[in-house]
Structures are given as structure tokens and as C-alpha cells.
Amino acid sequence: MAVASAVSSGAEAATKSHHTAKARPATSRSAAQAVSKSPRHHTVEGADAESISVKVARVRSHGPEIAVTRKVMDRFVEGTNPMQILAMTTPGANFTSTDAFGLDTYGNTFYVRGFTQMQIGATLDGIPLGTQGFTNNNGVSITQAIIQDDIGGMTMSQGAGALDSFSAQNLGGAMTYTSSDPKDKAGGKVSQTFGSYNAYRTYVRADSGILNPTGTKFYASFARTDTDLWKGAGGQNELQADAKIVQPVGQHGKITGFFGYGNFQQMNYLTLTKNMWRQMGRNTTYLKPDYEKAKQWAYYAQYTSNVPPGYEGKLSNDEIGDYAWDSSQVQRTYLSAVTGHFDLSEKIHSDTVAYGNVSSGLYGGTNNFVTSPSYGTPSLQADGSVTGVPMALGMSHADMRRLGFTQKFSYEAPHNNYIESGFWYENNRWIYDSMLYEDGLTTGHNPLSGFKKGTGSTWYNDAYNSNTFQFFLQDRWKIMSGMTLLAGFKSLTQTTHGGTKADYTDQLTAEGWNTYYRHAASGTLAASGAFLPHFNFDYHFLDHHEIYWDIAENLRAYDYYSQTSSATPWGGLGNSSQPAQSVFDANKKVLKPERTWNYIVGYRYDSRFFSGSADFYHTDYYNRLASITEGSTATAHSAYLNVGRETMNGADAIATIRPFRGLEITNSFSWNDAEYQTPSINYSGKTYSLKGRHQVYYPKFMYKANLNYTWHQAMFNFNVNYVGARPITYLNDQYVPSYWQANLNLAYNFGKVGFARNLEATFGITNLFDTNYIGGIYGAASVSGDNNANLFVAAPRQYFGSVSAEF
Q1: Cα–chain center distance at 218
Q2: How far is residue 735 CA from its own chain's centroid?
Q3: For the chain, which has fewer Cβ within 10 Å, the N-terminal or C-terminal residue?
Q4: How far apart are CA 611 and CA 592, in angstroms?
Q5: What would the pLDDT profile of 429-479 be if each residue is shown by its tens digit?
């Protein structure tokens, strides 16, 4: 398969079967939440496609869906996060990260038309992947589910959603990933990448070829990525392994088995306020390896309201507390699935997926607001040194186990109707145990190992269990040649029971840890929508033209993570005088799940020399939920409340010209006007109006340009993105500046050399002009002021070179 353009949506293949030509729209909301000011620390806490066989020159998107083929993915640095490639090639999408590969789940943010990766459905070969944000509490990130090189293609649905893409989180659209099939002929591939900051990546794949008359074939692959952090101490490492086996069953079916393993660990980058970024510079980060400085700054943060000498008027006491010794994460995940496709008759088809997903994680870092008790109460000496240890390691042990099953049936009914129906069931168990470990008097902890369960002092234990059921029914009616109308609905219900199982705050305080309130709460919540309709119209006419519209209602189930995290009904509630449990019980009576109505209308033109499209979309957002401080100044406490409506209007336009063979020039422009409609919110005893304020963290304007030129065996690709200023407070009184960012990639294929085929050398430069800009924004937004350290500085310019060959 080839695609007309890296960015363009191109012509629907005439040979696509009915069930591969589905319009899958998308969108995604802000994850920002307002939280009350409390001690801040750096225990890190969070927040299906089928194979397509096409024998035509080009493949293009259908309706409000952008398709990205393997050929387009190969234009980027090997191992690049697929969401980063989607953002580079999709209007209205924005991806930012702290590292060039885009692997840092803590520092990544992905937006499409105002919605985040936490609110967009994602599937791999029909396997629901859950949310794609930090930690794997209800799914698995695509970077750990499968090696990027083994993805055969992906789509980004930008409209109102897809009924047959199973997700309990999406409010707008869907990302679908398709794994490549084993090759018919035995062989393999090896590639090696080297880059800046001692980066290297190795990828190896072996294909069995067809093994017997029944058509059995499989592949196994391995990848390792390793790099130093571009600032601060430590590095980043990821190990991955995939295996896939395909077994045809006669002429009318096949069974596929897939296994994916991911092991990701890294020292984290420090989140900053805008003031920290401007005062301390791009390279400011955790204090490691200066242990004495870390102790001193922790003392000032925990025991005083002052700042160390030399930082008066430069940093606040809160910002001093953000500068901890270190922070780290370890994530391991296993994903297994068995899928079956069978033609039950000439007109009835069945697709079944049974999957299991197990993951574990260690998320933690130095907590500047507790004290290691073995060394007594800390004190500040005249020379600036500190006795005792006014900090400790906070490390959370997380475990997830998902078991699920999906079943779809399709029926080629009379009178040009194609009826599809299916259901999804999943049980998810999530355990999150928070521990404290003492730091040494003169040396710190080992951040990435030695923290087995049962060690350390337990602060609290959380456990959640959720059951999800989704059903859909839709009919795609071919009204006439080139014109189809889809109508259907889905039903979704998710019930989650859990929260705090044990809380030991008082016991730890008595032992001298100087611990503080931890918001213990538990209970059951259910999110249900019995009838969530979806309508889609698509009309191809006059060979090159297409018009389409899409309308759908979506519902999002409640998030859960831990008793201290913001942005969930169970997390960060109350205070020491207003217990979290009483706040949860009160919230439960009035909470409703978030809903959206999404509308999109678009036009697309495609020919050999020119492709272009324009979309207009509108979203009505209901029951927007946020962590917010309510009550009077004297009785303020954190609650999780409905803070009102939001409306979003936007437009995307994209155009690709191909003046002669091998050259493609693409430009796209995006406009998004997402505004809160809330007339008033009560925050810390004061009333504020958010009406007319722009959605936090999302830019109003974006521009993308891509130039790709292929001449014989050589390839040149240059892309540049502009991202407008983004508000970081609900009242829009603080923005992070706009920026331009560019990348350059070169490749040359030497063809067959000896026993190697497709011997290729590539060279890439990320952040070509070394722009110093804020990339990811993680976690809660302030109502006003530069108060939250939630900004990540993006990676500087880096160089990468690769050599690959097939055998």
C-alpha cells in the first residue's frame, strides 16, 4: 500500500470490503482540573482495525478519518511514538513529549480537536487499549502494546466516534492500530539506530514464512531503546517483544494469536512552573546528584516559608519544594490476544477477540514534605547544612489485570444494507499501594530497583474493580453508488467499586514521618448510557469529490487511580477537618458521567496532482467534571463536581499538491474555539466566572507543513509545526508561548547488497532549529496564577542515524 500524502486523506480503495470502510471520527477533551493548594511532592501519580489488502496505487481516508500507512510511518525516526506520527500528519492533532522518541508516558500529551489521549478510544487489532495516558491503570499504551515497526498502519478518526471501536473513555473519536501480518516468505529484518545523548535502538524480526499446506505462519520480534536524559542524571530504557501467529481455517476463516511485552523505565524530567522555566532556564531539573542541596531545599520547603539564600525574588517557597532529589518510573506490561474471523455463510461474518492484559509499575520519587524518622527532627545549621533528613522516597506499587472479550457479527442484508452488531465485556482489577522508604543521612536511594512488595512503610492501600459492558448495533445503507448512510447506537455501562482499603497516616505521624492528610475514601459509582446514537453520511461523486457529515453522542465512564490523585471521584477529596469519605458520599448523590454531542461536516477532493479537504466541527460538552475547592475560606475543601458546560467550534483545512512524480507538498491549518460556559464556580471561598474562557492547555491555532521528495532510492522529508499560545489557567491569565518546531529526515535505499535486501541508511534531526518551548502539560490547572508545576520543557535538537536490512 502507498498513500497519496503523509498528511492528506486520499482515495478510498475500491477493493476495500464493507467492514473496512468505516468512518471513525474523533476528538478529545482537556484533562485539566482545578485543585486546592496542598503540600506538593514528587511521588509520581497520574493521572481495531483489520488487515487491509489493497491492489491500487493509493489508499486514502474515508469520511472524517485520516489513514497513515506503514510507508508514511517510515518517513520518521525509527521507534517514534505512533501518536507523534499521527500528530505530524493529522490536522487538529498535537503531540508533545520530553524525549525525541516520544516514549515518556509521564511527559506526553496528545490532543485531537480539544480532547486528550485520555478521552479518545484506542484499539489494536480490535483489542481495547484503554486510556493512553500516564500509567496503565485501565489499559496499555500503544508504545508498550506493540513495537512500532510491527504496526502495519493506523487511522485517526476525527469526527464523532465509532460505534464498533470499544472504549469506555472516549468522548469524541478513536485511534485504531493494525499489526502487520507475518510474511508468506521466510526472512527477517534488522535495524540499528544511534543518536544524541548516547541513544541507540535495536530492532530484530524473524518471519517463518508459510510452514505447511494449511498456511500457518508467524513472526517474532525484539526491540531495545536506550538513551541518557538530555538534562539531569539517569536515562531511559525500553525493552519490547512481539509475536504473532496466523492460522487459516479452510477458505472461510482464520485464527490469530498475538503477544506483546513492554518494559519501560526511566528517571523522570521535572515539571516546572512558567516562572521556573524562565528564571532557571531550559536545563533546570531535579537536584541529583547534589544530595546536600536536596536536603537543604527540602528543609526550606517543609519547615519554613522562606527560600534558600540567593533565590529571594526568584523562586517561591512552593517552587523550592518542587525541586526534589529525583523521580522515576518503571512499567512492565504483557498483552495477549486470540482473535478469530469466520465467514459463517456467504453473507454473515463473525469477528471474535479474547484478550488478557497484566501490568505492574513502580512510580515514585523524593517527597520533600515528609521526614525520614531515624535521624531525628531536622535542623538548619549556620553554614547552611541540614541535620537529619527532611525528605524520604515515596514509591507506589501498582498492579493491573484486565480480562476481556469482544464479539462482532456482520450481515450483508438485502437492499444494500450492511448490518453490524457486537458487544464487549471487560473486568479490570487495579491495585495501588503507596509506600515510604527512608533516605540515608549522606546518600540517597536507588530509584529503579530493590523495592519489593512488603518492604518500606505502608502509607495507604487502594484497590478498584470495574466491570464494563458495551453493545452496539448499526446499519450501513448504500443508497446509491458512492452514497452511504450509517445509523446506529451503542449502550455502555461501567460499574467501579473501590478506593481506600487501609490508611496509615496517623501511625506514620506517630513514628516521626511528619505525614499529612491523604484523602481516604471508598465506594461504588456507575456510569451508564442506554442509547447513544450515531449517524454518518458519506457521498463520493464525480470521481474526485466526497462530502460527509457525522453526528454522535458519547459518554465517558468515571476515572479511578488513587485516593490522592486529582481528576477522579475517589481522589484528593476533603481535608483534615472535612473527611474525604463524607465528601465522596455527598458527591455520589449528584455526580453524572461526562457526555458530548459531536457534529462534523466535511468535503474532500482527491486527484493525481491535488488532494484537499476541509472540515467544520462543533461539540457540546455536558457534565464536565473537575476537582475543585468549594466552601467558604474557613471551611474550604476539595470536591469532585460538575463545573458546567463547554462548547467547541473548530475547522481544519489541508491541501497536498504533487506537481510531479515523487514530490508532495502538504499544508494544513487548524482553528479551535473551545470555551467554558460555566457562569460561576466556588473556589477557596470566592466565586469566579469561566464563561467565555478558552479551554486550558489547547491552542487556538495550529499549522503544519510537510515536504516529501522521493527520487529513485533517495527520500527527503521536512516537516514543520506551529502551535499557538496555550492557556494554563481556567481564567486564562497565564499562557505558555506559541512555538515553531521542525524535523528533517533523509533516507537512501541501496537495494540488494549481497544477501541483504532493502539495505537502507537514514538520518534524522528532531527539533531542527533547537526551539526552547513548553511541550507537555500534565495534571491539574490552576484557576489563576502561575501556581502549578505542571509544564514539561520539550527535548532540544537531536540527531539520529539508522541502518536497516531485510533478509
Answers
A1: 29
A2: 23
A3: C
A4: 43
A5: 999 999 999 999 999 888 776 677 777 899 999 999 999 999 999 999 999
Q: How many CA atoms lie within 13 A of 406 on its CB side?
A: 27
Burial of 381 (0-12, 13-18, 19+ CB in 10 A): exposed
Q: How many H-runs (helices) and E-runs (strands) does the chain carry?
A: 8, 40
Q: What is the DSSP string of 651-666?
A: EEEEEEE-SSTTEEEE
CA angle, 480 as apex, 476 and 483 as ends, to 5°?
60
Segment 69-78, tens digit of pLDDT = 998 899 888 9
Residue 504: which residues within 8 A CB-CB, separation 6 or more? 457, 458, 459, 460
Cβ-contact 262, 344 below 8 angstroms: no
**In terms of pTM, does the model score above 0.85?**
yes
Return the SS3 of 34. Answer: coil
By CB neighbour count within 10 A (0-12 exposed, 13-18 middle, 19+ buried), where does 662 fall?
Answer: middle
What is d(CA 260, CA 244) in angstroms, rounded to the nearest whole number?
Answer: 9
Q: What is the pLDDT of residues 305-322, one digit of tens each?
A: 999 999 999 999 999 999
Omega into 289 within 30° of 0, i.e. cis? Answer: yes
What are 230-272's pLDDT values in tens digits? 999 999 999 999 999 999 998 899 999 999 999 999 999 999 9
Residue 518, SS3 per DSSP: coil
Mean pLDDT, to the nearest integer, of 496-501? Answer: 97
Quote the DSSP letter at residue 183: P
Contact (CB, 8 A) for 34 and 627? yes
CA atoms 261, 265, 271, 276: torsion sign: negative
Rounded-to-integer distance, Cα 697 and Cα 520, Å: 30
* Residues facing residue 773 across a β-bridge: none
- pLDDT tens digit sequence for 20-36: 333 333 333 333 333 33
Cβ-Cβ contacts under 8 Å for 414 (sequence gap 6 or more): none
Give the integer Cα–Cα distance in Å for 187 and 500.
52
Report the candidate in 670, 741, 744, 739 with the shortest Cα–Cα distance to residue 707.
744
183 phi/psi in degrees, rounded to 5: -80, 155
Q: CB-based contacts of 675: which residues, under 8 Å, 6+ apart?
A: 646, 647, 648, 691, 692, 693, 694, 695
Q: Pick from 730, 645, 733, 648: which is nearest to 687 by CA? A: 730
Residue type, 70: R
pLDDT confidence of residue 53:
29
User: 640 forms bridges with which residues in the sheet?
Assistant: 627
